[in-house]
Design goal:
The protein is α+β, with helices and mostly antiparallel strands and 152 residues long. It is built from three helices and eight strands, in the order αββαββββββα. The chain has a domain of 101 residues: Phosphoribosyl-AMP cyclohydrolase (Ubiquitin-like (UB roll), Roll), CATH 3.10.20.810. Strand 7 and strand 8 form a beta hairpin.
């Protein structure tokens, strides 16, 4: 556990215009984090952080998230080697969403499927029978997930 402390959430004016970082974590203890690639500006993933993950990210500059499925902290790329170095962090107006700009080590894969981005499919709005479908827009995999994530 990190000993980093964040500022208290005071007035709306303080949150929206002040210089104190007072992130708002939801009832589940998490804050949403949108992740973009530093070079391209492309959104590569959306993740969540709890207070400890956010503190570790700020301390190490390595993106650390809370895995909702595994219920534990994880440093992005700790298994694959595609770690994310935080270049910039921003917070939205009411401090309940983070936007982080990262440089990814290795081949640049940010998705556990081996792709550059987790957003590799488009929703087909007018699919068969009026039901939406999916079409893959990025077939390129930078690694084979079945080899990299043997224990998952």
């Amino acid at each position: 556990m990190s000993s980093m402390q964040f500022h208290n959430r005071n007035t709306v004016a303080d949150l929206e215009e002040g210089a104190e970082f007072a992130p708002k974590f939801g009832a589940d203890g998490l804050i949403t984090c949108i992740v973009t690639d530093h070079a391209s500006g492309r959104v590569v993933m959306v993740a969540h952080m709890n207070q400890d993950a956010l503190a570790r990210t700020l301390e190490t500059r390595l993106a650390t998230y809370w895995s909702r499925s595994r219920q534990k902290l994880w440093v992005k790329g700790e298994t694959s080697g595609h770690t994310q170095h935080v270049e910039r962090m921003q917070v939205d107006c009411d401090q309940d969403v983070l936007l982080i700009d990262v440089t990814t080590a290795g081949s640049g894969a940010n998705c556990h499927t081996g792709r550059t981005s987790c957003f590799y499919r488009d929703v087909v709005l007018d699919g068969d029978g009026g039901r939406p479908g999916l079409t893959t827009t990025d077939q390129t995999r930078h690694f084979d997930p079945s080899v990299v994530y043997k224990s998952d």
